[in-house]
Amino acid sequence: MKWTAVALVGLAVALCGRWWLRRTDALGRTRSFPWFSTTSALLLGCLLLWLWLAHKRLEDRLALAASEISGVKATIDCQGFGEAFVDATAELGRVDFGHDGPRRSALIKRSQCAALSDYMKSDKRDPTTAQVIAVHVLTHEAVHMSGVTNEAVTECLAVQHDARAAQLLGASPEYARSLSRRYWTTFYPRMPTEYRSEECRPSGSLDAHVDGAPWATTQ
């Protein structure tokens, strides 16, 4: 998107330059300025550039939150329209794994990034189902980037850091805890078996004893 925008702005400049160099014809008559083509290229280029900047700001904001959760310098890649169009996978986010463990970057699907953007723009009082899940997806991938590979362990640690993630995205402590409890009570029990553990509970072996754990707010 960025380079398409740059190319369109460059085209607008080139059209202006071409007209300036050839502003009169062989008979000395002034040529009409190419207003339509120049303006169209410039406006479309500026629109695409604005969309790219908004996309980049969103990625940077999410990366800051993911870095705080993971404890490493993390990057977030929000899936673009073209990628989403050809994507047939069901996963909502992904961290690739190398021979030395998880990468420090995560792909977040387009729908999830859109929900995260909507959440950050909202008052956080009553997030939609999509927004609650999207915040958790970000937290889950952040835990992966910290070096955890097992899905059940990752999921359990993520539910304990959802409140912190929500606060990093602008929620008050009260609203962040509410989001965390909602995911824990409504969505965690529905996760596939490989994403759940009986030890994900108060005083269980996966209890990280953090203030934001959903069970810490329900006792």
Question: What keyword list fits this structure?
Answer:
single chain, 5 strands, 7 helices, two-stranded antiparallel sheet, three-stranded mixed beta sheet, 219 residues, mainly alpha
Walkthrough of the structure:
This protein has seven helices and five strands. The protein is mainly alpha-helical. The strands form two sheets. It has a three-stranded mixed sheet. The chain has a two-stranded antiparallel ribbon with strand order 3-4. The termini are far apart.
Secondary-structure topology with pairs:
Blueprint (H helix, E strand, L loop, with lengths): L1 H20 L13 H36 L4 E4 L2 H6 L6 E2 L2 E2 L2 E2 L2 E4 L1 H12 L7 H17 L5 H18 L4 H15 L32
Parallel strand pairs: 1-5
Antiparallel strand pairs: 2-5, 3-4
Number of strands: 5
Strand order, sheet with most strands = 1-5-2
Question: How many H/I helices?
Answer: 7
Whole-Å distance between the termini?
Answer: 49 Å
| Oligomeric status | single chain
Which bin fits the share of residues in helices? 55-70%
Q: Secondary-structure element order, as H and E?
A: HHEHEEEEHHHH
Strand content: 5-15%
Derived structural class: mainly alpha
Shape: elongated
What is the radius of gyration?
24 Å
Mean of the pLDDT scores?
87
Q: How does the major sheet shape up?
A: 3 strands, mixed
